[in-house]
Amino acid sequence: MKLFQFRGGVHPAGHKAATTDKTTRQMPIPQRLYIPLQQHIGAPAEPVVAVGEQVRKGQLLAHSQGMISAPVHAPTSGQIVAITEHPAPHPSGLPVRTVVLASDGEDRWLDGLTPTDPQSLSAEEIATRVGAAGIVGMGGATFPAAVKLKLSARNKIHTVILNGGECEPYLTCDDRLMQEKPAEILAGVKLILQATAAQRAYLVVEDNKPAAIAALQAVCSGLPNISVVPVPARYPMGSEKHMIQTVTGLEVPAGGLGADIGILVHNMGTAYAIHQAISQGQPLISRILTVGGGAIREPQNVSVLIGTPLQDVIDFCGGLTEPAARLLMGGPMMGQIMPDLSVPVVKGSSGIIALTAAEVADRETMPCIRCGSCVRACPNGLLPLQMAAQIKAGELDKVVDFGLVDCVSCGCCSYVCPSHIPLVQYFNYAKGELAARQQAKHKAQENKKLIELRQERLAREQRVKAEAAAQRKAEAEAKKKAKAAAVAQV
Predict the structure, then answer these.
(1) Mapping DSSP to helix (H, G, I), strand (E, B) and coil, where does residue 84 land?
(2) Own/partner pairs for 335-342, CB < 8 Å, 24+ apart?
(3) How many CB atoms lie within 10 A of CB 54?
(4) Is residue 146 a contact partner of residue 135, using CB atoms and an 8 Å limit?
(5) How many CB atoms lie within 10 A of CB 475?
(6) Which residues lie closer than 8 Å to 322 by C-beta, 6 or more apart?
(7) What is the per-residue pLDDT across 287-338, written as a single tens digit (0 to 9) for each?
């Protein structure tokens, strides 16, 4: 199969050898689980349980709100001990509404979670069941999977791409999943094809994962419309737009989606979760993640219940050999720095990476020498040095003109910068500031509308009062005239 090349990109050291050949281990049930109601893009889920209630494994804890949202389920059986604010897996450490579940150790499934024959389901029924299972993008984007499946109702999806890139250093959770569960992934791919009516599927894997490629090729043998496609190991190959371009040669329009050109991309873990939901009747309550980095005593991949505190996961892996200089959820290129170990694992957690001071190797930032390395490395063809200059000058509106919305925050520019300028941090700041301004503008517009509505209501009330007063005055005048006429007749 002919492959195409996207511009830019980098080749960071993989650091994957410590975990890629180790079989995934199942972590025991923790004593307490902290299950955030916001584990996805969109509106947070709304609780349907109360403090003190006993729940079963797989039971609905919170239902989705709005079109873009996802429900949350109990990862094990036990008692709801609190619905409170708890630190979220975000560098700010700000708390989010969280259901706290004390496990009873019995791990009892909810009655009625039964497998379904996939062949008996329509495309709409598959999407509905995927939505009810709370499945989101397992690669870290956490976009509700059912919403993407329903895109086929508006867009004619002709191709499905299963993303097995996993180009971030240290992370091997998808690699292990592909090696250990290839048949289940294939079953999920067939369900996605059935839900979208797409004609073909490509299982795309970087060529530095030979065992995963061989495992998938073995189960896909003889299937004319499903192919395993090895691609060059090059960051950010795992980016949806760049994977589409590499496999098909097509470019996704700026600000657009793959579905706009008839291509739907899902993560390998998402396909596995879809199979579990439809064929096994199980909602998304656990995931595989990589626990790695130089500070981890026993690096490995672990199957973990959603809501497990990071401290419990690290303890299961032997603890730390030294205090972590940087604790990340996700990989070192795009992962988020965690505020502390009380943060729980969520649906989009691909890894817990504890880096030593030697691995972090913070270096002093120096002035830009205008070497153009960042321009050559940017996979989206942007001008990072110009964008950073505009941000430092406070000209955020001009940064948008330079293509800020097309920046995927991959970090390639920062990685290659010889002056060690944290370019991607500038861009993330600008995105956040512009989003805050947009929200403030929207709020001001809403307040203006409310003021206008209030003024209209007050004016309407004044008119009604004036009309009522005029009516009463007219009636009084009429009565007075009638009384005068009656007196005159006498």
Answers:
(1) strand
(2) 335/168, 336/89, 336/90, 336/91, 337/91, 338/89, 338/91, 338/310, 339/87, 339/91, 339/92, 339/93, 340/87, 340/93, 341/309, 341/310, 341/311, 341/314, 342/34, 342/86, 342/87, 342/309, 342/310, 342/311
(3) 12
(4) yes
(5) 10
(6) 295, 356
(7) 999 999 999 999 999 999 999 999 999 999 999 999 999 999 999 998 888 9
